[in-house]
Structures are given as C-alpha cells and as structure tokens.
Amino acid sequence: MQLNPQPRMGILVGGGPAPGINGVIHSATIEAINHGIEVIGIMDGFQHLMEGKLVTTPLTINSVSRIHQEGGSILRTSRANPAKSPESLRKVACALAEAGISLLVGIGGDDTAYSLHRVQQCSCDDMGLTVRTAHVPKTIDNDLPLPEGIPTFGFETAREVGSKIVMTFMEDALTSQNWFLVVTMGRKAGHLALGIGKSSGATLTIIPEEWRGRPIRLQEVVDILVTSILRRLADGKRYGVALIAEGVLEYLAPEDREYLVDIGERDPHGNVPLHDLNFSDILKRWAVEDLKKLGVKIGLRDKELGYELRCAPPIAYDVDYTRSLGEAAADFLINGGSGATISLQGNQVVPIPTDTIVNPVNGRIDVRMVNVDSFTYRSAYKFMIRLKPENGSDPMLLARLALLTNLSVDEFRRRYGYLIGIAERPAFDLRGQRSVAASGA
Length: 441
Known about the structure:
Elements: E1 8-13, H1 21-33, E2 38-42, E3 56-59, H2 61-64, H3 86-98, E4 101-108, H4 110-121, E5 123-124, E6 129-130, E7 132-137, H5 155-176, E8 179-184, H6 191-200, E9 204-206, H7 218-234, E10 240-245, H8 254-260, H9 279-293, E11 300-305, H10 307-310, H11 316-334, E12 340-345, E13 348-353, H12 375-383, H13 395-403, H14 409-416, H15 436-439
Parallel strand pairs: 1-2, 1-4, 4-7, 7-12, 8-10, 8-11, 9-10
Antiparallel strand pairs: 2-3, 5-6, 12-13
Helix pairs in contact: 1-11, 5-6, 7-9, 13-14
C-alpha cells in the first residue's frame, strides 16, 4: 500500500502497565517525526476506537523528549478487545482510516498482539484504507513467545524492584521469626516469580511449569509449602519466604477451579480475573490449618506482589531496550513492514511475523513458559529449601521431619512421600484437599 502524501502514525498501549512503555513512545515518535511523519497518541488503547471514536493527543519531539525515564504510560492503557466481534474491528479500522492513520504501533502483551493482528487484516469499506501494524512486546510476565533468553521489556525492572521488596520480607521474616507466603504476578507463566525468587534468595519458589502440564491440585501446593517449613524447622529456622506464581491458578484441576473461582466471570480477552482472588490468603489459611493438625505452630503472613512493579520507573536496561524497540517499530512501518512483533536478537532487529506465532487451533498467541529443563531453572531449584526427590533416599531426614509433627515416620512417608516419588499419589476430594482415607494420618 502506498503511503498517504502526509502519512500519520498512531501509537496505542494495551493490557497492564509495564516499566518502559514511555521509552517506546519516546523513540517511535522521534524516529517517525524525523522521517516527516505526523504522530498521534491514541488514548486508552482500543477502548474508544471500538466505539468508532478517536481520543488522541498529539506527540511531538518536545513533548516526548524526557518521558523515557518515567514509569506508567502517558497514553494510559486498557484491556478493551476489538477482536471480540467483526463490528468492533470494523469500527476500529474506520476510525483510524477517517483520521488518516495508516501506520499503527501497538505496545502490549499477547492479547494486544492478537488484536493488532486482527486489525491489520481488516479494512474500512467506506474509506478503502488498511492499516499496517507493528507490535512492541511488553509485559512484566516475560511470557511472550520471543526466543528463549530474550526478555519482554518491563520484566527486568519488575524483577529488580520485586527482588528488593522480597529482600525486605526476608529480613522481616528473620527479625520476627515468621514465614511470608508471597503470590507474585504472572498470569500464566512463572518467569517473574522465578526471577525474583532467585535474585532475592527467597527460600523457595513455586511455578506452574513444575507440573509439566499436569493439572495442579491446590492441596499439593500446600503440601510443598508445609514440607518446606518443616525442612527449615529441622535446621532450627522458624522463618522463610515462599514465592508462588499466580499462574498456578490458571492450571488448577477443574474441581479446584470450581471451588475457588467463578470461571464465568472473565475479562474482555477471556482471562480469569486472578486479581479478584486473594490466592495468598487462601494458601495461608490452608497451610495454617494443616500445620495445626500436625501439631506445628508457626507464624504465617501472606502478601500479593505485582501492582508495586508495573509502573515503577524503568531501570537503565529497560530504558535502553525500549528506546531501541520504539525506533525499530517505527522504521519497520516506514519501510513498508506490517503484521509483526518487533524483537532484538543478536543486537539486530528481527520482526517476527504475527501469523507465525498465532495458534491455528484457537486463534490465540501461545505464551512462553519457563523451561524447567534449562540450566537457569535447575540452578534456581538447587538453591531452594524444599523437599526434593533426592531426599527420598535419606531416611534420617524424613525421620527428623516426622519428629517435628504428631505423625510417625511411616505416616509421614505415606502423607508426603508422593512429593518425592516414594509413595503413591493420594486421592483428593472435590475441595482439593487430601481425602481422609488416603491421608495415612
């Protein structure tokens, strides 16, 4: 498609905030203007466009010159989903066409990438104009399908800020002789929890990838926490910090999901609103109940960690990274590109065609999960204090753990041995707890 005599480029932001958004807006704007292209900031993602409206703010070199150092988004953001209906897509396309916006930079996660993919496939019959799109991958979850080892922007800042917060929890745990159970953001994958856990030296980190696709039972998560607490007690330590990725909720067995979540209530992209569920409190209450039954007294405190990270000022890594990504996205569009996620690989710009990462079965973009066979994960796991498979051959350790409870060694093995492969996996009732008949207690 030929550019208009005076082409316009729009920039919008979708999904949750992440440190570095303004860096992309900053450099994309400057690069486009330096090529003679007018830049329009589109407010609130696709929200107004889906109604056929264009709520904008002009972007100039002066107005964006220093914003790359700021957290948040000067264009705000929303989770509005134009792909939910053909009519919504048409309204978006026509609103952009009417404004003469033929180039569109979208900053967001997997949902935004898919929305852009659908928008660039749509045209406005009244205006005869199609929009070329570029997606800049943004999420603190680090779960977009980029090549392994390449982070999404915002992740490194979130990990840095989150690690410092968890370090204060660890100091508090030591000082007050308590445990903290901290649920970290990460809608589906465990990258953020694992990154914070390893960087801060947390006692253990639980991520959904540990189950390798097997449905997760909530009681099993609680059993991991309880046995980790017992391991620390066996070493004379009554304190610790456990991180749990909120993505565990996404992979719960259907029985447990029914118990915990009204799965009929979803956001515009079909995701369960995990932020409405106090997962850390649920884990704490179940763990306290189990410890009490075992005759173990320990102080547990629960925290949710996520919103503190999303709008933090970006660290130097993300400032540098996002300024490069924004410039690359603008150049990609200016040079005739469309329908791709912009990545930096080997210090070179590599556009990844969106149609190559869209799942042909469900039409969605699959997220990148933690590779639990990688050295990075194995190294993190090695540092964790928890019951591990190699402990199955250490009868003295199991005896020491049993002595901390009101269970015999055989009862302890029957109850928790399934975690390390030395006992049969117990039956769980519909509430997700271990059935009395199979508990061995």
